[in-house]
Amino acid sequence: MAGPCPSPWARLLLAALISASLPGALANRCKKAPVKSCTECIRVDKDCAYCTDEMFRDRRCNTRAELLAAGCRLESIMVMESSFQITEETQIDTTLHRSQMSPQGLRVRLRPGEEQHFELEVFEPLESPVDLYILMDFSNSMSDDLDNLKKMGQNLAQVLSQLTSDYTIGFGKFVDKVSVPQTDMRPEKLKEPWPNSDPPFSFKNVISLTEDVDEFRNKLQGERISGNLDAPEGGFDAILQTAVCTRDIGWRPDSTHLLVFSTESAFHYEADGANVLAGIMNRNDERCHLDATGSYTQYRTQDYPSVPTLVRLLAKHNIIPIFAVTNYSYSYYEKLHTYFPVSSLGVLQEDSSNIVELLEEAFNRIRSNLDIRALDSPRGLRTEVTSKMFQKTKTGSFHIRRGEVGMYQVQLRAIEHVDGTHVCQLPEEDQKGNIHLKPSFSDGLKMDVGIICDVCPCELQKEMRSARCSFNGDFMCGHCVCSEGWSGQTCNCSTGSLSDIQPCLREGEEKPCSGHGECQCGHCVCYGEGRYEGQFCEHDNFQCPRTSGFLCNDRGRCSMGQCVCEPDWTGPSCDCPLSNATCIDSNGGICNGRGHCECGRCHCNQQSLYTDTICEINYSAIHPGLCEDLRSCVQCQAWGTGEKKGRTCEECSFKVKMVDELKRAEEVVVRCSFRDEDDDCTYSYTMEGDGAPGPNSTVLVHRKKDCPPGSFWWLIPLLLLLLPLLALLLLLCWKYCACCKACLALLPCCNRGHMVGFKEDHYMLRQNLMASDHLDTPMLRSGNLKGRDVVRWKVTNNVQRPGFATHAASINPTELVPYGLSLRLARLCTENLLKPDTRECTQLRQEVEENLNEVYRQISGVHKLQQTKFRQQPNAGKKQDHTIVDTVLMAPRSAKPALLKLTEKQVEQRAFHELKVAPGYYTLTADQDARGMVEFQEGVELVDVRVPLFIRPEDDDEKQLLVEAIDVPAGTATLGRRLVNITIIKEQASGVVSFEQPEYSVSRGEQVARIPVIRRVLDSGKSQVSYRTQDGTAQSNRDYIPVEGELLFQPGEAWKELQVKLLELQEVDSLLRGRQARRFHVQLSNPKFGAHLGQPHSTTIIIRDPDEVDRSFTNQMVSSQPPPHGNLGAPQNPNAKAAGSRKIHFNWLPPSGKPTGYRVKYWIQGDPESEAHLLDSKVPSVELTNLYPYCDYEMKVCAYGAQGEGPYSSPVSCRTHQEVPSEPGRLAFNVVSSTVTQLSWAEPAETNGEITAYEVCYGLVNEDNRPIGPMKKVLVDNPKNRMLLIENLRESQPYRYTVKARNGAGWGPEREAIINLATQPKRPMSIPIIPDIPIVDAQSGEDYDSFLMYSDDVLRSPSGSQRPSVSDDTEHLMNGRMDFAFPGSANSLNRMTTSSAAYGTHLSPHLPHRVLSTSSTLTRDYHSLTRSEHSHSATLPRDYSTLTSVSSHDARPTAGVPDTPTRLVFSALGPTSLRVSWQEPRCEHALQGYSVEYQLLNGGEVHRLNIPNPAQTSVVVEDLLPNHSYVFRVRAQSQEGWGREREGVITIESQVHPQSPLCPLPGSAFTLSTPSAPGPLVFTALSPDSLQLSWERPRRPNGDIVGYLVTCEMAQGGGTATTFRVDGDSPESRLTVPGLSENVPYKFKVQARTTEGFGPEREGIITIESQDGGPFPQLGSHVGLFQHPLQGEYSSITTTHTSAMEPFLMDGLTLGAQHLEAGGSLTRHVTQEFVSRTLTTSGTLSSQVDQQFFQT
User: Fold this and answer.
1) Which of 13, 530, 707, 936 has its CA 20 to 30 A from that of 560?
2) Helix (H, G, I), strand (E, B) or coil at 423
């Protein structure tokens, strides 16, 4: 039954109470959001609602409570409610022996930004069914392992029976894909690759999971080993089939699935199948493909799976992998197994004899770990699982106790923005879906989840051109939406009417509403949601008086330009409390009766240095030298003696009073005693009051002096006689006896008045005027200056915050913190020691660090010293010329007492190991305090104490340090002034500069990104910041033009705009990097003129394709105001700065309220926030340590206190610094001949930054591998070119090769290999030399010479070689290529090619480059071709380019005329000179000389050099223009005439003078460059006598491309050379060439024709081979898939393919689906299909060709 209806007043009161309890940030977020509709409102925040009441006149978008309080009717409030429903829940039964979870089904609907928490129960029984499947490598090297497994079948069963009573066991085997290059494809090897072995196979399920152990043993006995060629195996194919073929393998649904993977080799992974020879195009489809015999059938057509695919599929099917591998391959699987949340890794003996023990250990380890992860989660939802019962491991799994029901807490959160886009604007699949929350051993929880993005119903029912809106707008959701040009609540005001604007003009102003509002119907509607007020919006509520930077001291609100204070507060800026609570003294009185309370502060009647803020005398701070200050005035007034006797005594500011008895010392401020030099008597006096002598002060003096007895006058002559002897004796003792010195110093006569103390008691510093982070604080010694005194001191930071240091120290005792250490060395300082790069400084630094490391290593956790430097210390007495060493050592926070004790001990001993130090001096600085020691040598009156000031960004506006003299451990002085207070004032900012948003989206089609920068003005004045762009996934000069500079805000200016020009996306970039969004960053830094950086001071620009983005930027800025006083807000101005390669310093400003601590989240940028690390801090800063080098991190912080946890700050990002890279991955040698090798290497496994260059060194070694002579060095300054051709090596000599990489941090370690080319098998090679591979001459040249060359030289096989030879016993030495693979190195799993003398078909040798061709290229349009030489013509469809035969001539030269010089090499000698070298051409007659011609590429004078000496094959060319391209032509002459010329284009790039672009800067670097050649040539066979040639556009053309020139000729001479012209500029050009002959190698050359001339050539050699018993050609290159030869079958096309070594051809990177890298044969059936498809789409070739080709 419904209760009584509450009255409207009660409902209003309830709404007000609810509103008061809400955090202010949420209310303001709804209220302040710039929304225009109901739908936009409810998407701002989960607590936002919208009022559709027509009579409502307040802000319609607000929280539900505030809308009710403002008068909106409950039925008119539009709000979207979230829902949470459990759809399936079966209670856990702990008696069942299987894994269980509860609940099993949920349905959740959340609003953007909303979270849902629920609990999850998971039960893992003590004993559960186990399915164990053993997957074993059956390559020949595992033969002994198989024998042992056969013997241990019974032992396996016994181990399983001990673990569980319900188990099954199965067995599978794998080798690799049965294809080249993985498997030897010779027929006899396909039958039996090794003696007594089975044929090769990919994967076979031998024994499905069974309970019958005898069946398992019996079947296992019949198994034999198999074999393959390359070292990595195809185990990934086997793992995937084992996982997805659940029915064939026999996995049971409620058992624990264990997969034992046993091998001694590495693994192939995704893209290894798409290599040059295998040619497998399709990705793995993740389906089961086992036939009736259990064999994997799709090994030929599908690639290997990737690692993420295996991780996902094994988790989906509840399979836990156990990797049992040998030491040889352990490093590969050590990294691999970390990707699986629950897995195990064990070292297998070479013969697998320990596999039973390994399985038992792994099973016990796995049983205690449980992983719960969310699968198939939409992008807009985040799931995080935690547990209060169980601890998480490093891999993210939980360490559980079996047999217990585990409780887990699940947080499901709907995020608001994904990559800067609101979640409701994402596709539907990113907003809703079915999340599978799955533990390791069971099926898990199915969650039907979704984000509420519905449109408000009232928006679907709007009245178009409604009468309620004066027919000038639409009525929707309770209000009018006016048409353009109309305004007002009923749209009855024309915005352009002058009569409406006049009432809004204030007298003397030109802008209506003071420029702060909009004039509507004659009334001002102010901007800023309450910022501006008044009839004319003339009052700015952000300009009220401030205190400490807070508006109205955060104790009031700004209204009409004045502060309206809260109760109990007053003053212009609300900075004066009305209560006297802050003036109450320790006795309960007001200001100790010595003053009055005003504005919450005591104003003392008599100001003094020794009274505190409540007028209480601070006796401990009274002047330690007060006795000395009063001494002379007391002496002259009381006795008429001393320094001031006479008239100067009248200058004393106080009077003395003679008394008979003085009070005790504890009853007065100070009690003093001194000896009067005039009569040798001692007088005493006291000081009362506050310790400040003044006109009204009185000093009480004891009337009676204490004089020595005077009745022994007869002793005077004796004493005069003995006095010289005594003085001589004392002098000798003082000189030579330290003990006597100490004894004499103890005498009262020697010690009287002997005192040390600080010179001043207070220092006031302004942080913006400070030049260093320390302060030299003078310390004085008064009285007797004889002897040596040592004073210990300490300094404490932030004493204005009680308990600060204690809280900081209690964060984590084991946390590493830097300790600063300063020592005085027992050696004089020289000028060289102050220069860090000098040899003397380096040697001393090494000596200091070695000795100090030796001493401090006895303390646990101490790291080695760093940042060691030297200086001098002024005002250090007699030792100020000695060297001071400053250094830093990292140690745990808890090690501070041990460090202090050890340091004092070693300083006292005057040595740290063998390092001599001066005694009496050290400083040890921790993070919040420091301790040290200073020494007064004899006769020294003043020394400086170097006090660290602990300057931190998170410091308070006014912080205090306390310096204290602790004691005098050596010497006789007493402490005088013990304390020094140091106050550091941080200046307030005149303005805070930041970006409006942390992220913007911009369409590439807009060409310019416009980024607003705003300044929040706090004080009148100008502000300046620097800005610069930084690469992300977008690259400068490829995606955008980088910019940097300064922004200057003039007084009153609050907005600036940065503009960054965007570049068009090139076609090749879209192929390589896809259509994903590119990002770059803009950073603000270096604020000046009092400016501070706000948040965000870094923004990300997302460049999207035009079809993805319709507007320039997403200008939705969510702002939040500080929460009400007492509630915790988000920390302000979070700031992160890299402090090294593995450390980031993160700080922030404390929020309002009273936080007791902070919680910091940080994670790798791009990772989900659920994987963030958490840190707890008591202070507003933290050091993030143990990070990855050169890695972007995101972090945010929230405050917590008695009220709970506050909101998190906006996340900030920071990148750690670079570290030197690791060694390159592997060295590979392509042996061309006994004196020529091609060296290549892989990128370092850990680049730790951006690789900028490589250095290759090589040199001779002796039999002991020791160097003979110097190593030659070659600098490869293009990091993409990881290849080098080295010529003219000495035959039969071993060489040592080293390669190391460089990044921004410096050079990394070397990768080394030693090889003798003569010991490698000779391979027939066909290598067209290409321009972009550097070539170095081992017999000449200087270090770091730059080489670029052009050549058409083809390196052929030895004349006697008919087919390649193969050493069957060397698995790693194939085709003249030797790979040095090292465990753990990057890309050490090499794709190796094979060749064999016994193949049924010819395998041509090859270069390790990739051919880019697929069947899809055959169905595309071809260029139109017309040739007059053919009797038939082929008509092909027109394309965007046309091809015309332009020349045909006899390529055979006249007898006796020289051939073309075979190689053209350029070596840079300077910015304007180079050496041109060439090789002597073939010629039947003797050569008579050469001619070298050169001119500018864009035309100009031709320079000719004649060289009459035929032995001279090089020339030096001077006076070239820097940064200009030249074309060089070289030809040879004989008595028969001139030969054909060799042409090359080259540019010397160097820095030039800005005013003179043709004058290079002296000493500047210079490099060689050339316009790049067309992209790699791709050949596709169309018929026995025709092929298709295609190539890509040059990446760096010199000018605009107008077409291409293609030349075809026989590679071995003879026949005619035909030249074709291809017009047009396309990303990819194609050409069909008919009329070729089979088994004849052809050479093709392609060069681009630009507006500046012709660029370099791209060459390729092609042979269309038959398999009908014809001769094997010696030329050709890439080998395809070969089958048994058939009569008349055209099975293969072999190509020699050249690559410009450009980035997109490195490391197996492919060009999308149509450009997979593959070469191969076209078998009869495949070729027939290709040609049929081609003829269908591209016309006919002729009936004769068609008939000839399809004949059997």
Assistant:
1) 13
2) helix
- Bridge-based pairing of strands 774-782 and 991-995 is unpaired
Query: Per the structure block, which two tokens stand in for 633?
Result: 């005035």
**Could you give phi then psi for residue 1445, rounded to 5 degrees?**
-70, 125
Q: Is 507 helix (H, G, I), strand (E, B) or coil?
A: coil
What pLDDT does 1752 receive?
24
Distance CA(1519)–CA(1470), nearest Å, equals 10
Residues with Cβ within 8 Å of residue 1696, at least 6 apart in sequence: 1326, 1327, 1328, 1354, 1406, 1407, 1660, 1661, 1662, 1675, 1676, 1677, 1678
Render 130-174 in DSSP notation, one character per residue: EEEEEEEE-SGGGHHHHHHHHHTHHHHHHHHHHH-SSEEEEEEEE
Residues 6+ apart with CB under 8 A from 1017: 990, 991, 1052, 1054
Name the amino acid, one letter, at 36. K
Beta-carbon count within 10 A of 731 CB: 10
Helix, strand, coil distribution of the chain in percent, nearest 5:
20, 35, 45
Distance, first Cα to last Cα, the chain: 94
β-pairing verdict for 816-828 and 865-871: unpaired
Cα(1093)–Cα(994) distance, integer angstroms: 6
**Three-point CA angle 1029, 1031, 1032, nearest 5°:** 125
Whether omega before 181 lies within 30 degrees of 0, making that bond cis, reads yes
Q: How far apart are CA 216 and CA 152, in angstroms?
A: 11
Per-residue H/E/C for 895-964: HHHHHHHHHHHHHHHCEECCEEEEEEEEEEECCCEEEEEEEECCCCCEEEEEEECCCCCCCCCEEEEEEE
CB 1203 within 8 A of CB 1127: yes
- Per-residue CA distances from 970 to 479, 788, 933, 974 (Å): 86, 7, 11, 11
Tell me the Cα Rg of the chain. Answer: 44
CA distance 1242 to 1240: 7
Sequence-distant (≥ 6) Cβ neighbours of residue 538 within 8 angstroms: 506, 514, 516, 532
Q: CA torsion 1727→1730→1733→1735, rounded to 10°? A: -60
Instruction: Specify the 3-state DSSP secondary structure of 554.
Output: helix
DSSP state letter for 463: B
Measure Cα distances from 81 to 261, 426, 741 in Å: 51, 21, 89
The Cα–Cα gap between 1708 and 1692 comes to 23
Report the alpha-carbon distance of residue 204 to residue 173 in Å, rounded: 6
* One-letter identity of residue 715: L
Can you list the residues of the chain whose pLDDT is less than 50? Answer: 1-27, 276-279, 738, 741, 745, 748-752, 809, 1072, 1109-1125, 1322-1333, 1337, 1339-1452, 1667-1752
Q: What does the alpha-carbon distance between residue 1310 and residue 1647 come to, in Å, rounded to a whole number? A: 39
Is 677 strand, coil or helix?
coil
The owner of tokens 């942390």 is 998
Residue (of 1403, 1704, 1664) closest to 1576 by Cα position: 1704
Q: What is the rounded CA–CA span in Å between residue 471 and residue 898?
A: 85
Q: Kindly state the tokens that stand for 402.
A: 């079996």
Q: Give the model confidence (pLDDT) of 1212-1253 as tens digits.
A: 999 998 999 988 887 888 777 778 888 888 888 888 888 999
Which candidate, 988, 985, 948, places its Cα nearest to that of 797?
948
Q: Are strands 655-659 and 698-702 parallel, antiparallel or unpaired?
A: parallel
Q: In angstroms, rounded to a whole number, what is the distance separating the alpha carbons of residues 452 and 1388? A: 50
Q: What is the pLDDT of residue 1574?
A: 81
Tell me which residue of 1307, 1271, 1357 sits closest to 1612, measured CA to CA: 1357
